[in-house]
Amino acid sequence: MRTAEIRRRFLSHFEANGHTVVPSAPLPFDDPNLMFVVAGMTQFVPYFIGQQAAPWPRATSVQKCVRTLDIDEVGKTTRHGTFFQMNGNFSFGDYFKDRRDPLRVGPVDQADR
Amino acid sequence: MYTDDDEAFDIWHKTIGVPVERIVRGGREENTWDMGIPGPAGTCSELFYDRGPDYGTEGGPAVDEDRYMEFWNLVFMQYERGAATGPHKGDYVILGDLPNKNIDTGMGMERVATLLQGVDNLYEIDEVRPVLDRAAELSGKVYGAHSGHAASQSHPDDVRLRVIADHVRTGLMLIGDGVTPGNEGRGYVLRRILRRAVRSIRLLGYDDPALPQLLPVARDSMAPSYPELASDFERISTYAYAEEEAFRATLRAGTTILDVAVTETKRAGRAQLGGDRAFQLHDTFGFPIELTLEMAAEQGITVDETGFRRLMAEQRARAKADAQAKKTAHGDLSVYRSALEAGAVEFTGYREVVREARITAVIGEDGALAVAGEGDEVEVVLDATPFYAEGGGQQPDWGRISVAAPGREAELTVVDVQSPLPGLVSHRVTVLSGEVRPGDVVLAQVDVNRRAAVSRSHSATHLLHAGLRRALGDTAAQAGSLNAPGRLRFDFKTPSAVPTTVLGDLEDEINEVLLRDLEVRWFVTDQAEARRIGAIAMFGEKYGEQVRVVEIGDYSRELCGGTHVARSSVIGMVKLLGEASIGAGVRRVEGLVGLDAFRYLAREHVLVHQLSSEFKVQPDELPERIAGVLERLRSAERDLERLRAAAVLASAGSLAATVEAIDGIQFVAAQAPPGVGGNDLRSLALDVRGRLRRGDPAVVLLASPAEGGGVAFVVSVNDAGQAAGVSAGEIVAAFVPVLGARGGGKADLAQGAGGDATKLSDAFAAARDMLRSR
Q: ipTM of the assembly?
């Protein structure tokens, strides 16, 4: 399955389950501690810490990330890349542990087939 | 899952049915997640996929994370973490609960793609692999030929191919999102990534520019998800290719220096390259420290990184002090601070060029003065001043300050005006006559001719800036400027050279704007309003809440604290002299303004006139005529060179005829035509040698007196001679002491230069003796 197809299926699965599809934030990140976005949740931090009210109870995104801390590991392991994409689903005070699982089983289950 | 999160355990085991043996409980290090900085945090459950025994040892993620690949992390985001309290990942305190219980999950796209596409690692998925393949093709490597499945069995070539594929993609994505290569922050990260990619493919044996071959492949692989990469590719690739070119130039200069330094270090029996050498490489050749570290490591030595960092810090401190000392007489600012205690100095120069003011401080080399007399060079602070202090690229005003105290007169000439502290204006003056004291009431008079000329340049710079943005887009942002009487300089950001036609059109447009006689207005407003009306602000510049906007008709609107003309026609004329690169992604345009522009054109006119009468053609025909003359000249030089070479070789026959026999060796020792050196002399010697009997030992020693004194010489020994034990190097060794020259070489060929031409026959005799005494 091509990566672009994984992306499409991931987003449409969560969209069908009440998540708003939010575009990726640009890679440069304005924060004294971070130069680049390093995780899917980075752009949502203000909603998690209650600094701003989340515009949607649920969101999903494919976030562009750059992390260069492990740059020397690149190529030597199977899983370190300086650029990567994070598929995420997010609940801002909406569902928690128990209600997450039915949503999760979907894409992993599909992926297995 | 987190160690005591029984709720999660129940869901995993009871609700979903995951067998108990497949659930691992981890502590704070493994099963909490945060951003590595204060902020939201939570315990988490991580999903792993077991890829089977081909990929590593059994035993779960704790044993082998390549075999057990984590692909999804589910974070129960409910705490706020504080600052780090120790070196480990879990060393921080929980400050409290977040307002809500949240869910944050992260599924690594590349890892899922790795699993679903059945490939070994993320460098082999559809978005990355094509770049890897292209790099392999370019370097003639076969990917995977020497590696096993597991990551730990990877051949270094394969590691490099993966680095290339990863880094080229990252470079593409970063530039795509607006990052440009630079020496600090994000720009430096990007620079390092691009340079590592280029270096990796060079290490694989591919020396040509690589990014033009690789970046388009990365674009095609990523465009299905990010179509903007394709539409924006021209801009992206311009930055990337320029960076590779810059790096190639750096490498050419620096690699040699590093090799020498490494050799010296090894010869001295040390295993560590000095921090001073690493610093020199960085400072003089722009060689990044990371590269020095890597390249030294490849040669088996380390680098004194601490020493390097210390020198870097010292240099930064020095540069800072220098900049301060240059602008103000006092590196120590305390004297200015006390001058400022009297209150901020009001700048009145937007409205007036003459003003009555009071001196609040006189400052000499050693601090505040009570009086300064004739001939003294001091600094003077006024309570208010019409003098413009150098700033925003605008040169300072010059002028006069006259003291008219009761019974006392003094004249000061102002040679520089600076603002060493915000709110303070300091006039550097020479006391022409009389005495000056704090408290004196003075008349401050700006040199209006200079002010007008500087203002013309400054307004012209605004037009140039606005015009460049119209022509090249808003990325052509100002990076620096100089507004001096009669001339201007404007630095701006752009990835590539500005075509000559664009510059010509721009010049035309600016001069048309001058003729439109636009009104120049200025007003003070708040930042938000300035942004709303689209005033150009310098990127990265800090402005106060209240900003001054200068607009020239409807053509230019810019935040600016400088002085300007009242109407555009006053500028008179603008002549752009050309543009050039002054650093990666920064170009500089220089221009002349007003009468200086006119005089420049008038001079050119005279010059063209002279040339056209010299060449006896119309000005329009000059380029063609000059090109023709140059071509004929080059062709004549080539003919001359051919004739000279032929003459030299023609002498070969007569030189060969001087052959003598010494102990069965054919020996030619002769003076070649004067002024033959280097390659020519070597070819001549080989030619002479070729005229001797090949089967018998032959030695040819030719010497040619050089034009500037000294002798160039060469010794050539044929194969039979070498077999008989004759060495060109040994002959030279016997020859040079007599001549007083230097030289050396190997058995077949030796050469040298210098010495005294009058001793040539003695030197030839010494060579003969040497051959005889063998």
A: 0.90
